[in-house]
Design a protein that fits this description.
This protein is α+β, with helices and mostly antiparallel strands and 325 residues long. 47% of the residues lie in helices and 13% in strands. The protein is elongated and about 80 Å long.
Length: 325
Amino acid sequence: MSKGNKGFGSMFTEGLDDEENLDKATPADGIMASRSQTLARIATGKTVADRTEWVDPERCRPWRMHNRDLDHLTEDSCRDLIDSFLSAKKQRIPAIVRRLKDDPNFDFEIIAGVRRWWTVKWLRAHHHPEFEYLVTIQSVTDEEAFRVSDVENRSRKDISDWERAKEYTVALAEFYEGSQSQMAEHLNLSKSWLSRLLDVARLPDEVVAAFSDTHDITVRVARDIKPLAGDSKALAKMRDEAERIQEERNKTGVKLRGPEVAKRLVKATAAPSVKGGVEKEITGRGGKVILRYTKARGGGLTIKVPPKAAASPAELLKAIEGLLG
């Protein structure tokens, strides 16, 4: 992010979702009012009337474009909020919601504050039915809602690059006509940073499968892999390596960290030298590599069959016979 953007994001670094630091700041009512007005002005370009109230969390649902992976919201990942809510005996910072009209099962849609919503629901299910969900109700369009959510969550470290990239990819198509320049301008982001973030969500599914947790796929990890994914031969090698990594994980239960997976994928694309020879490939009918071989200077031949090679035994034998002929 550019230097100018740092100040934009840092406006919201403190106090937005950090319940533990609230007592060190201004009174709660002042924080709520200031925060609500600031986010509203950023989203719509003007101050709007809104209201803050306690609601039943069961009558709220996350917005379809919220940037939280619900599967990663657990007692452990929300432990800081759970302890903070219990200490204060309530939620101190409101979430941002908008009212629903045609859904009999829910009254509100959560624009920002899904983690707080999950925490209140968890507490109510674990011997604390007295907890309610504190929300600020606003009237915003989908694009405005996206910007409000982005402003509040941009500085948060507990939202992964993967979650953010997926959200941005959908927003790019829905709100900005696929124009990264337009999106960067609306969000006050540098074009280069936005491009690197979107690359996270553009990795091929076969490569993504190599990672035990998609949250390990960071901007830095994608930076090394994405350029190679555009080369058909390099991509084929990474797919083979991804399959090996998955097989090892299934057999041993060992989960490699994101940078380690990326290193193996990138390394797999390099053609190794074996006793003076260079590794070459033979592809099958579908264009996928079915055989790799190296002819050494002394006349030796090394043959490798990739895991799950898309070829029948007869095809493999034919390819080997061609090398020996």
